[in-house]
Amino acid sequence: MTDPLLAEAPAADLVRALAAARQTVATAESLTAGLVSAAIAGVPGASAVLRGGLVVYATDLKHSLAGVGAEVLATEGPVAASTAEQLAVGARSRCGADWGVGLTGVAGPEPQDGHPVGTVYLGLAGPGHTEVMRLKLSGDRWTIRIGATKTALRELLRCLRDTR
């Protein structure tokens, strides 16, 4: 049986690229709750590149486990560009990885803190590189979470290729 998380997601390409670059990755995931790490782990050879992941679904864990600033969470909230950036930086530093991926957003079915369903922030942090992007995804909870996962894998692969 094929891993459903790997369908149409560039996880195998990402694992190969990380291995070729001799680099590693770690995640801090909120709305995806570990799907990015699980997709990477589904690829044979992932143990050479996947350091680990933090599931930080609860707001307080974004601070205590991933190191998102309490002031950022209090002023900007858990669904914000700065939160995603700090999640990525926190995953990278706390897991001792070359690259960190941070994901936070609203999968639905209801809006959260004024953010519509499908609002997702993706943070990527690596050697000399940090970026955040806002995604607008549509569909049900599963579709939004899978879309965020696929985008995170694709964008990390792009960053890795761009920094060579």
TrEMBL record:
Gene3D superfamilies, sorted? CinA-like
Q: Where is the CinA C-terminal domain?
A: 11-160
Instruction: Read off the InterPro entries from this record.
Output: CinA-like_C, CinA_C
Q: Any idea what this protein is called?
A: CinA family protein
Question: SUPFAM superfamilies annotated for this entry?
Answer: CinA-like
